[in-house]
Amino acid sequence: MSVTIKDVAREANVSVATVSRALNGHENVAEEVRKRVLGVADRLRYSPHHAARSLSSRRTQTIGVVLPDLYGEFFSELMRGIDQVARERGLHLLVSSYHGNPEEQGAALRAMRGRVDGLLVMSPFVGERGFLEQSLSAALPAVLINSGAAEGHRTLNVDSYGGALSMMQHLLQGGHRRIAFIAGPDDNHDARERLRGYRDALERALPGTAPWVLQGDFDEASGHRAGGELLRAAQRPDAVFAANDMMALGCLFAFNQAGVAVPGQIALAGFDDIPLARYVHPGLTTMRVDIADLGGRALRALLDGNGGDPAPGPRLMVRESSGASPEAAR
Amino acid sequence: MSVTIKDVAREANVSVATVSRALNGHENVAEEVRKRVLGVADRLRYSPHHAARSLSSRRTQTIGVVLPDLYGEFFSELMRGIDQVARERGLHLLVSSYHGNPEEQGAALRAMRGRVDGLLVMSPFVGERGFLEQSLSAALPAVLINSGAAEGHRTLNVDSYGGALSMMQHLLQGGHRRIAFIAGPDDNHDARERLRGYRDALERALPGTAPWVLQGDFDEASGHRAGGELLRAAQRPDAVFAANDMMALGCLFAFNQAGVAVPGQIALAGFDDIPLARYVHPGLTTMRVDIADLGGRALRALLDGNGGDPAPGPRLMVRESSGASPEAAR
DNA sequence: CTGAAAGCGCTTACAG
DNA sequence: CTGAAAGCGCTTACAG
Asked: Any chain B CB within 8 A of the CB of A92?
């Protein structure tokens, strides 16, 4: 059917061993022979059969990427960073998503056996750790991304807690006191860390103040709902801190629709710094997380066998939406 | 190192052939033996070595996905649709992006040999067709997505031309006459089709009217720039039709920043119906393209060997941004 | 229903 | 520098 190493060997009048050496750039091949082999391979449009190669070489040149989902702003950016490093190193990416289902995650992880040289796994669902550890073979190097701590595995996390503290500090410095928080899914590692940052910062700055937390699930629609809810409150907040930008945008649109001025009447802040954050009106103040960089670092950590440089912390991006509150402006 | 079929065979006191049959669900295995084998495999946490399996069975259970990029709203949605069908069929996805580089595309396509059972390729760059056709082996079934026509290969395209006609009809019916168009990259298949739709509709409805086209590149920043440019025009347009939503949003933000009312002073429309389109204020009128569905259809077409149901045409989503112009309101 | 054996297309010591 | 041969871990006719 398709052309194999044997065909090349026959045409070039050498053994398959020599063809293999020539193609793989080994030193021990006469220059003239190498050229001939490469010429024939090219003419025959030969391309090595991957499964055969990886079966005998024990290497796949492929990295497995197991994520909760393959789409959405976050995963998409993560893939971009991973993809870039993979290309630099000539690696392929075998992707798999498990949609938050622990069993599927286990299956996905196990199915990677013999298909990849290493694994990049993101498992932000707090409840899934048992399955995770169990399905991660010690034989396959793995790096966990944004999945909290994990014994025996390298990890790389966004500092969501520290980021939330920074944002709260910014809002408090702006004079805001009644700060509501739109939380992410409560089984999500980052969502929890951001909520913890909000609570701790509040407790530290204004001891005794009751946290004001609305439940969201990281998408615009839930931010939109939370925004509406806040507008109906007996006493409105000075500021709203959403656990991610998508919810902040949903909230912003709810405020816009209601004719509530941001930041004039209510200040608003998000987390992530998605591209749209700077284009909405007013520009959204947020914590910049370099997600693509996180993905790239994770892959490099996997390949280079080190722990990976710790990911740099999120950076505060001050835009108009958090502008000084009326009180602070006095 | 890791456990192989031999280990299972030894433990279960059968031959590797029997283990193979039991594991693959073949009929010709005694029930009692099957159970024993499955039990042992489970206990040993055996998982078949993929490369070995696909080398001998000639099947990889993997579909190659070659896209211009792996990130961004469009690809992300496409992956979602592909991923969903892949999961239903128990298939893995080997992804590769080529960043608009024809040579890289060729390399990516060739590197898929022996790794996948079929290929899903998106190649919207008009100039790359030669490379594409050349790197597509006849041995490997392939479906081209949004890549225009291709001899000898199945294709699935969004009807961008028809969609642009529909949107223009909507704007014209709203009474708009001076309609500017923000075009996408000129080497992009969809961008060209949408531009062609704009021109044809204009010529048909208002023969002799000069098209008003601004160059964009499908991202918010270029839409933002185009919006600014339109505001500086001696005579502003009645309506702006952007070749995709991201540019329409960039344009909307430019208008918002300048205090120009949409649709009061200028109507605005986009194309794609990305999730944000309904959340911005005013809601963005656009053509809905079900991208995830497109991806799913493409994979089904590949697997089921048929041409695939033709993708349903884009649907007009009327929201506030295209509201009747002052003239039409009279 | 089961096993021995060939074979998938490569890579890699081992000799020379 | 080169080749013959073993081996990677499976699947699948072929016998029985």
From this structure: yes
Query: Given the DSSP bridges, would you call strands A118-122 and A142-145 parallel, antiparallel or unpaired?
Result: parallel
Q: Six-digit token pair at A232?
A: 């109906």
Which domains, ranges and CATH numbers included, belong to chain B?
Answer: 5-48 (1.10.260.40), 59-156 (3.40.50.2300), 160-290+313-329 (3.40.50.2300)
CA of A72 to nearest chain B CA: how many angstroms apart?
6
- Rounded distance, CA B266 to CA B176, Å? 9
Buried b (16+ CB within 10 A) or exposed e, B79-101: bbbbbbbbbeeebbbbbbbbebe
Touching B: A residues 127-156, CB under 8 Å: 137, 139
Q: How far: A100 CA to D12 C1' (Å)?
A: 38
List of chain A residues whose C-beta atoms are within 8 Å of the C-beta of residue B96: 92-93
Q: Rounded to whole angstroms, how far apart are CA atoms A14 and A34?
A: 10
Residue B60 at interface with chain A, using a CB cutoff of 8 Å: yes
Are B113 and A47 within 8 A, CB to CB? yes
- Radius of gyration in angstroms for the set of CA atoms belonging to chain A, rounded to a whole number: 26
Question: Mean pLDDT score of chain B, rounded to an integer?
Answer: 87
Q: In what order do the strands lie in the sheet with B267-269?
A: B212-215, B179-183, B239-242, B267-269
* Main-chain phi, psi angles of B198, to 5 degrees: -60, -50
Flag whether residue B80 sits within 8 Å of chain A, measured between CB atoms: yes
Q: Is the peptide bond before A48 cis (omega within 30 degrees of 0)?
A: no
Whether residues B79 and A94 touch (CB distance < 8 A) is answered with no
Q: What are the pLDDT digits (tens) for B195-254?
A: 999 999 999 999 999 999 999 999 889 999 999 999 999 999 999 999 999 999 999 989
Tokens 């992006």 identify what position?
B97
Contact B113 A280 (CB under 8 A): no
Q: What is the pLDDT of residues A160-217, one digit of tens each?
A: 999 999 999 999 999 999 999 999 998 888 999 999 999 999 999 999 999 999 999 9
Q: A327 at the B interface (CB within 8 A)?
A: no
Distance of C1' in C9 from CA in A113, Å:
20
The highest-confidence range among A99-113, A126-140, A244-258, A311-325, by mean pLDDT, is: A244-258
User: Please, which residues have CB within 8 angstroms of residue B154's CB and are 6 or more apart in sequence?
Assistant: B142, B143, B144, B301, B302, B307, B308
Determine contact, residues A12/A57, Cβ cutoff 8 Å.
Answer: no
**Burial of B129 by CB count in 10 Å (0-12 exposed, 13-18 middle, 19+ buried)?**
middle
Query: Is pLDDT at B327 greater than 60 in this prediction?
Result: no
CA closest to C1' of C2 belongs to B18
Amino acid type, A231: L
What's A125's DSSP letter? B
